[in-house]
Structure formats: structure tokens, C-alpha cells
Automatic annotation (TrEMBL):
Entry keyword set: Isomerase, Rotamase
EC number of this enzyme: 5.2.1.8
Superkingdom of source: Eukaryota
Gene Ontology cellular-component annotations: cytoplasm
Chain ranges of the PPIase FKBP-type domain: 34-123
EC main group: isomerase
The protein's name: peptidylprolyl isomerase
Record organism: Cladocopium goreaui
Record Pfam families: FKBP_C
Keyword Thylakoid: no
Gene3D superfamilies: 3.10.50.40
Length: 125
């Protein structure tokens, strides 16, 4: 008889991004693809906790459009689960961050990241 290979159940990408609320938002206003968002964030390497980047240090919120590949996939998947005003820790695996290439010399290849994200504003595009 032919051997059958057992594959693990598929995991959706949404399940791979952990969103842990630090401060609840309004609980009713969630961003949708195409919305313009304003956030503050701190990025850290998950394994060491080393801070890589911070919009707080620049004193300039980070703005982007959700769902149009302006940010890493893990951000699009995690932030859409946050409500307006929420502060959360996003844990993003390497495959939904910068993958095998890394980024800018500060993020090595195959590195899981954590982002402390504060969702400040949602504007329809």
C-alpha cells in the first residue's frame, strides 16, 4: 500500500500573529483595508528584547494605509484586530516580518519581532 503523508492542520496567517492587549481601545471602531492609520510603535527583536526602532523616540507617529502592502504582513494582520485607542503587543514571526532577508542591517534574517503598537487614529481613505 502507498504511504500517506500526514500534514499538520493549516494555520491561517491571522493565527500566527499574537495580539496581546496592554490597554483596551473603544472596542467598536476597527480599521478596515484601505483605511489610513496613525500609530506609535516600538519594535524589538523577540529573542533578545533589543529595541530596533521607535516612533516615540522620533516624536512622530507612523502613518500608513492598511492592507496595501505598505507595511510588513504581520502588521496588517495584527492591527486590523485592534480597536481605536488600543495599545497592544504584536508578536510577529519572521515569515510575516522581514523573512529570510532581514532589514537594514538591524534586523537579521529569520528574526521574530515584537511591536508595541498604539492605534491613534483611523481615517477612511
Amino acid at each position: 500500500p502507498l504511504a500517506t503523508t500526514q500534514f499538520p492542520p493549516e494555520t491561517s496567517w491571522m493565527d500566527e500573529v499574537e495580539v496581546r492587549t496592554v490597554r483596551p481601545g473603544d472596542g467598536i471602531t476597527f480599521p478596515k483595508p484601505g483605511d489610513k492609520l496613525m500609530t506609535h510603535y516600538i519594535c524589538r527583536i523577540r529573542s533578545t528584547g533589543q529595541q530596533i526602532d521607535s516612533s516615540y523616540q522620533r516624536r512622530l507617529p507612523f502613518r500608513f494605509q492598511l492592507g496595501v502592502q505598505q507595511v510588513i504582513k504581520g502588521w496588517d494582520l495584527g492591527i486590523c484586530r485592534m480597536s481605536l485607542g488600543e495599545k497592544a503587543i504584536l508578536t510577529i514571526p519572521a515569515n510575516l516580518a522581514y523573512g529570510q532577508t532581514g532589514a537594514g542591517g538591524s534586523i537579521p534574517p529569520d528574526t521574530d519581532l515584537t511591536f508595541e503598537v498604539e492605534l491613534l487614529r483611523i481615517s477612511a481613505f
